[in-house]
Design a protein that fits this description.
It is a single chain. The protein is mainly α. The chain contains 4 helices and 2 strands, in the order ββαααα. It has a two-stranded antiparallel sheet with strand order 1-2. Strand 1 and strand 2 form a beta hairpin. It is extended.
Length: 107
């Protein structure tokens, strides 16, 4: 993953630096990223809501949903897609389903 952006516009690396004394180049973790953005609520957060069913209308019910709605996560395209588009090609991801129902199988 590439770096994210803090609300101030400053770059936020998702991995500890190579010279980190305890965890060089390890992923920082969602809690650390949320705290650094200043989005950590006073009551804390669940890592994920039970059975992945978050309450409607809430944006701070769990780590996953809170990060999923952040602008730098929403706007970031997959690296593969960016590479394909940079080469002047179209990138079209198909949903996961049985291979015989894939669009390309009709040709």
């Amino acid at each position: 993953m590439r770096n994210g952006k803090l609300p101030t516009g400053e770059s936020q690396p998702f991995y500890f630096p190579l010279d980190h004394p305890m965890m060089p180049s390890w992923f920082k973790g969602m809690e650390t990223i949320i705290c650094k953005c200043g989005l950590w609520p006073a009551g804390g957060l669940l890592a994920q809501y039970p059975n992945f069913y978050c309450p409607l209308g809430r944006i701070d019910c769990c780590y996953c949903w809170l990060l999923f709605l952040q602008p730098d996560f929403v706007e970031q395209k997959p690296l593969l897609q960016e590479f394909i588009e940079r080469c002047s090609h179209l990138c079209d991801f198909y949903p996961k389903y049985h291979c015989e129902m894939n669009f390309i199988e009709q040709y």
